[in-house]
Every structure is written in C-alpha cells, then in structure tokens.
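Before the break, one more example. Copy the sequence into your notebook; we will annotate it together after we see the structure.
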Amino acid sequence: MSDALKCPMCGGADLAAEFTSTAGYEIVRCRDCRLVFTDARTAPPPSELYPPFEQSDTAAQRSARSALSLFTLQRAKLVEAAKSSGRLLDYGAGAGQFARFMAGRGFESVGLEPYSLGTTLEEPSLRLVRAPLAQVKDSLGRFDVITMWHVLEHLEHPVELLTQLRSMLAPGGVLVVSVPNFASWQSEVFKGGWFHLDPPRHLLQFEPSTLEDCLRRSGFAVTRQVPFLPEYGTSGWIQSALNRVLPHQNFLYEWVKDRGALSSMSTAEKALHFAASVAGSVALFGASIPVEFVAAQSNKAAALTVVATPS
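Here is what the structure looks like once it is written out:
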C-alpha cells in the first residue's frame, strides 16, 4: 500500500488490502488497530457526495415516510431508555427527520448537518443547522444526549470528532452511536457489493472491537449494546440483493431518501425499477427479520448500536 495512505483512527501505515468494492474503491485494514476503511483518495469532495436536498411531497413519498416512521420510533425508544427528556443533538441529521421527531416527543432538539440539509430553521423546540461542528460548536451549548445514526462511518477523523462531541455532553449525558457492522453476515455474503459498504461515502467500516476501540480513544465507555435494529438489517438484505439484479444501484434507497439522485433516469426506467424493487422487497422483508434476529445473537447483525458515556 502507498505510504501516503494512513489509518484514520490510529495513523498507522501498516495496511493490508481486504478487497475491491463493486464501485472500484479499495477496502483496506490497518494491521495495528484492525480498523477497516476505504481508500477514498480519488473520491469526489463531500460537497459533491452530500448535496443539499429538499424532499418532495407526493402521496407516494408521504406514504413511504409514514411507514418508515416505525423505525424512527424504535430509535426514539432506544434514546428514551437512556434519557427520557432534555436537550438532544442529532449529529449528521440529514434532512432533520429524527431531530424533528424527538422535538415532537418533548426533547429540545438540534439537528446538525454539515452538507445535505436543505432548509435550516429555528423553532422553540427544534433547530436545524447546516454547518461544520467547529463553526457552531460554541453556540450550541451542552446536551443530555447526542445521537449519530450511521454517521460515524462517514468521518475522516472519528476520534477527533467524538472527542469534540464528548465536551458537549452535560453531566450524566449519553452518546448513542449506530454504524454498519463489517463483521455481519450481510457483509460476508455480499462483500464488495454490500449495500452498507457504500464507498466512497462510507470511509470507515467498524466491527464490534474497533467501534469500542474508537470510542475508548475518544474518552467514552460503552454501557449498553443494542444487538438488533430491524431498520438496518432489512434494508441491507433487500437493497444488497436488488443491486445484484437491477442496473441502477440503490434505487429503492434513493427513492425513499428522495434527494434527487434518480433525476437522470427516464420515467420508464423508474417505473420498471420501482415495480421490481417493490416485488423484491415483499419477498425479502419477511425472511430478513428472523435472519437478522439470529445473526444478532452472535454480533453478526447488519448494524452495531451502542450507548456510551464519558469514561
């Protein structure tokens, strides 16, 4: 491996190639700390990978978001098991759905998104901010809970960012982190075509030991592990399988995300992909739940989700 490539977590240069993803990016492992990460030196800048977007308001999109709110509720209950109220920061908030949802459940919510957030806003219990953390950190105050839902894997300097977030926790505050599990059954089955691998947007690929190591280096200790989140398990099995048969990769995910990534497709292409995706989803959804449940019993589920506190 090139001497210019260093581990994002420990800075080590003793690296070994794992495989090449279907997107053409090399996935490598640090021999020192064991972190797996993407060689993204040829990737576009974040401003291109995460363009700002506004979601549409069609009946189909509203129905999809309503159905997926069951997963948002599961996230909320996980947070509320650790903190029933207070100030919440959702770091990497995307379009701000989770921060808004938690504001509706009595939290004073802030959603911080450096790139893809569309309209920013400020309301009595909800604030959505599009800015780098360093630019607004001093104005945000302290929080009782900070959440990172599949965000940590996008970061170039995870320890540095987590250390900053630790300083923003109020006494007794908690951090909730969820990331894809590189040691999952899904990863083993789909390898370079795994949906949650997602290079070059995903820079880091965590396993149970490396996620705990990253948190420890940042001054956190894991207090709870949540082995089973169907949201990430079902999406991983369904979209990974669909990607093997459909020309347009991640169609169903992008249709639900509704961030403009499908704008280059013709109406006919969209219709065919949508029909195939719905049919495939119906067939795969029921099977994916028990498979993920069994996988979770041995830390092989699609996602790693933990609650941590400053150590």
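Residues 130 and 251 are 26 Å apart (CA to CA). The first strand starts at residue 15 and ends at 20. Try to locate both features in your own notes.
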